[in-house]
Design a protein that fits this description.
single chain, 248 residues, alpha/beta, 7-stranded mixed sheet, two-stranded antiparallel sheet, 39% helix, 21% strand, globular
Length: 248
Amino acid sequence: MMSENADFVYVHAKSNMAVLHTAGNRQLNAKEDAAAALERLFVLLEQKRRTFDFSAATRIGKCVFVGEGDLSFARALARDPKSCAGNIIATTFEAERSVCLEGRTNARSLSDLGAKVLHGVDARNLNERNLPTMAELIAFQFPNTGTRRSVHGRTDNHVLLRRFLRAAASRLKLSGRIAVTLVNSPHHLGAFDPPSAAQWAGCEVVEVLPFYRSAWSGYGHVNTNDASESALSKYRSCSTWVFNSVRR
């Protein structure tokens, strides 16, 4: 039913996942309930027609994109006639000398379009002096540490997300937003746990919207551990999580 709210269903799914810690045969039923709730969430997200309007954000103010890898998403956005390329700051974690050939080509294209490109920017620490003091949007497309390690019960990906959210919130305009796009799968959503990461970072989830790679011509996405593969080649359903800061 379209009247159901996808965000509520996610919370319901998380609640069911928490029940997994209970003893006995209740665990199996809880696991089945959580999986069913997540599947329902994915269906509801697909039913939403509206996606996050990255282009509109660039028309309002400075927009920072971290962890851009080969810079193909930023390039696709900058080429969108509805975007203001001059407000795009695309960054890579890698130093300039370590960026792949495709990334270097895209960096030149971005510069030609009027966007700024910065290398060696750590999404967990946005103190880079060349970044705007207050941004309209700070976005991280498909963050991934490339590991499955856990520390004190939290995955590396969850720690990455919450540290990014805290760093981004410190450079956000009052009306600004943080956007993070993730794969819709129980594994990925469980590993990142966006609501808990937001709470830790002093942020809140504003909305969750579907993300369609096909809407961005030339967007290739680079896998953290293997540039020849992409998560987008394996998973078709993705969502953009939108956050704001609650510590103004």
